[in-house]
Amino acid sequence: MASQLVDAHRPLAPLVAEFRQTFEELAGLLREVADALDAGDEQAALAALDRARGMDAAVERLRVALLAAGEALTLHVRRRRHMGRLRSVDASIGQIDYAVRNVRVLARAGVTLTRLATPVPAELGAAVRCLAGAVHAAGESFAADLDGRDAVADEHAARAEAAALDAVRVAGRLFASGQPLPLAMIVGQLRATAIDLLRGVGVDDDAAVLGRVDEALGLPAV
Predict the structure, then answer these.
(1) Distance CA 139, CA 169 (A)
(2) CA-CA distance, 48 to 124, in Å (whole number)?
(3) Crossing angle for the helix pair 42-53 and 83-114, nearest 10 degrees?
(4) pTM strictly above 0.70
C-alpha cells in the first residue's frame, strides 16, 4: 500500500517535503533557462530542456505522495480532518502538471531563441527569474497549507501572485516590441504558467486570475 511510505505520526510530512522538492526543481529549472538565455548558450538551453523533460516524474511523485497521505489519514480517525486539505491539493496537482508542461514548452522555445543570430533581450532572463520566484513561493504556500498554517500559506500565495505578475509584466513589454516568434512563444508560456500557478494556490477565482494576468501582460480587458 502507498500508505506504507508514510510515517503514521506525521502522515502529511512526506507530502509537504515532496511539494517543496517539486517546486524547487521547477524553480531551479527556470533559473537554468534564464541563465542560458542571458548567455545565449545553446548547450545550456539544451541541458535545461533535457531537465524539463524529466519533470513529469516529479508530478507523478506528488500524486503517489498524495495517495499515500490519503491512505494514512483514513487509518487515523482523529486525523481525518485533514482530508479536506488533501482534496484541495488533489485539484491543484492538475494545475501543477499544466505548469510543468508550459515550462517544458518555454525551455524548448529557449533553445530555438539561442540559435538565432539576434541577441536575447536581457529583460527576458529577468522575467523568467521572476517566474522562478513565483514557483518557489507557490511551493511554500502549498507546504504551509498542508501544515495547517493558513496565514503563512496566504502570505506565500500573495508573494507568488506578485512575482508571477511581475514576470508577465516584464515579458509583456518585450512582446509588444515585435520580437521573433520563439520569444513570443516564451512570453505565451510565461503567461500560461503564471495562470496555472495562481489557480493552483487559489489566490482568486478563474476570471479574476485571467484578468489580472492579462492586464499585467498589457492585453485589453475582456
Answers:
(1) 22
(2) 16
(3) 150
(4) yes
Burial of 137 (0-12, 13-18, 19+ CB in 10 A): buried
Q: Which amino acid is at 166?
A: D
Q: Is 63 left (phi over 0), alpha (psi -120 to 50) or beta?
A: alpha
Q: Are 213 and 198 in contact (CB under 8 A)?
A: yes
Average pLDDT, the chain: 86
pLDDT (tens digit per residue) in 30-84: 999 999 999 999 999 999 999 999 999 999 999 998 888 877 776 654 555 555 6
Cα R_g (the chain), whole angstroms: 18
CATH number of 2-217: 1.20.58
Closest CA to 216 of 163, 158, 166: 166
For residue 147, give the amino acid letter.
D
The C-alpha atoms of residue 127 and residue 68 are separated, in whole angstroms, by 36
